[in-house]
Structure formats: structure tokens, C-alpha cells
Amino acid sequence: MQQNLQTAIRSFFIFGIPILLSIFAAFELGYFDMATKPSNYNLNVFKKPLALFSQSPMTGFYRDGYCRSGPEDTGNHAIAGVLTKEFLDFSASRGNNLKSIGLEPGCKWCLCTSRWKEAMEAAKSESDPVVPKVFLHATHESALDNGVTMDALNKFAAQPEASGGGGALERNAPITPSSKGGIATETH
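The chain above was modelled as a monomer; its predicted structure follows.
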């Protein structure tokens, strides 16, 4: 019996303590801060509670429907956008084929801030459909810390976001992008 106790203690020191130290270090370094942070403590670009964006398809880096970002999200999936065919083709041409996971034009998806910015910089005009329309109430504030300005987001804000309301986000109405790349409009 004493040998079993010695084996158990030795196993704990060999396996248990390193595991506990790793978990403690992860907490100290903040690796769990955003992933466990309730979504209502995340803010949008207006410094108000972040709105739920889509649960069909389930989007967001954490696949919880929110375009929130944290330390694990190196792509900063903070921009709440409505996919267009042109953006899907643009993203695929840069190595990220979103169609391969079943996304199609009209899907609401949390986009990498840098990819959205690339599309904006490649656009020939403000009505170019390569730039997904953005829902500001569901776009995480971290987008503003990653090279996107509020002016740029406002230029590509989805209707009725452009006029100050959350619109479809409060009613979960489906969103369709304009076939000419104009403002995304709600359908009922």
C-alpha cells in the first residue's frame, strides 16, 4: 500500500504539477480572457454592447454568433459583413476560400479586419461589391485598433445602419446584398 501511495505521489509530481502550472500560466497571460468573457461585455464601434450578428450560419471566431475578437484570434474577425460573390472571389484569390465551407453571397459573416480592409483598398468605388456591407452595431471595437477607420466603416455601412438604427439585427431579418454592390437591404 505504501508503494501505491509513493507511485501516486510521484505521478502527481511528474504529470500533475506541470499541467497545473501550465493552466495557471495561461490564466496569468490572459489566454482565457476573451474566450470566457460574456458577449455582453464586448463593445461595438459605438462603444455600446456588441450585437449578435448571425447564428445561421453560426459565425464569429468563437462560433457564438458575435464578431468579437480575443488574443487567440490573430485574424481579428471583428467586422460584421454581408458576403457578396465578388468578396468571396476576392478572398479565394488571396488563399481563403470561404465558399469551401459552404458560405455564399448574402451570408452574414464575421470577417478578418485585414481582409475587409484589403477589399476596401482594392475597390474601384464606394459601390464596388467587392467590399461587404458592414453592420456597425455588430462590429467589434477592435476593428478600429487594426487599421480600419470609423469613416471607412461608415462608408460601407449597411442600410439602415447608415441612418443610425440596428435594423435587421434586432429583428433577425435576412439580409441580401444589392446585385449592383449598393447598400445591403433588409428582406422580410
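The mean pLDDT is 79.
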